[in-house]
Amino acid sequence: MLGLRLPGHGTIPSGLVNLTWQDMAAAVALATEHLSQQLGDKPIYVVAFSTGAALALNHELEAINRGKQPAYQGLVFLSPAIGLPPVAAGAKWQDRLGQVLGLDKLSWNTIQTEYDPFKYNSFAVNAGDVVYQLAIENQRLLSLLTANQLGLLGDILTFQSIVDDTVSTTAVLQGLYQRLPKKSHQLVLFDINRLKVNMALVERDPRQRIQPYLDSPLNQFELTVVENGLNQWDQSQVSAAVVANDYLGNALLRTTPINIAWPRGVYSLSHVALPYPEHDSLYGLQRNDVVERVRIGAAASRGERGVLGVSAAEMLRQKWNPFYPYMIDRLDTFIDEASSVSHR
Hints:
By secondary structure, this protein is an alpha/beta fold. It has one domain (13-272): Rossmann fold (3-Layer(aba) Sandwich). The chain has helices at residues 21-39, 51-65, 91-101, 125-144, 147-150, 169-176, 196-199, 206-214, 312-316, 324-342; strands spanning 45-49, 74-78, 108-110, 123-124, 155-161, 186-190, 222-230, 238-248, 251-261. The chain has a seven-stranded mixed sheet, sandwiched between helices. Strand 5, helix 6 (169-176) and strand 6 (186-190) form a beta-alpha-beta unit.
């Protein structure tokens, strides 16, 4: 197993100010070459989050475009950066304006207290543009390659929240999965918690925005939506307990209970929540009274506004995945099945 620290990461936030996506792609290429040498004929499986998923996809698309064999037997993506919100397109112009005017502050979207040991809270404008440019390059390659060439990609399993304020869920559907030829690709979407009390406060149902893509005849992949099941006492209402519904277009194929319920007070997942279980000592709910530190995944602190150097929106953002056990089971099954195919 190899965990890759990308350039610009794991030091200080300013490490992302002058970074390019090619810097990170070069690191991925080196890591892949190293693994290939160490493993010999054994298959390589990549599990990648956010920008890491976009880099893994880019590595394989670049190889195929150059007439080489892809390196990965299977790819597992968590909240992949296939596309970003339209506002990301303006990031580079804000950064360039800051350079012209000599205003260093314009190089940053936010400057916050750094209390998270594994993630920068301050966000460099260039970091957003780097991911945006990488996403554009991946779309160019996906458009350039034929169906036969894209068929060389290893099977892809993706876990994505229907609501994601960092990357585009629509892009995952339209920009990646609807471009893939028929194979054993799988997409798992986590819906919002549709209890009546939550839906009364939802301004725009996020499912409606992506439903046309879910119903599209272009879909040649296995689609699972993790969503509320029906209340056993009142079938007109949903329950906090969730089920895994497998769809083909808008047709429901099967419903599988997964024996997990939405936690009280949680109305959706988030971009950052997927990789972390509830028992994670930093991002989960687990208490550790021995170590005095910020419990990032715990309930929001309460008091007067304007005191803490952390925004209320950030404190309220879901940091752990209540469906983590289901996700790990799907991941293990995916790799087991891909391995059995490779040995035939």
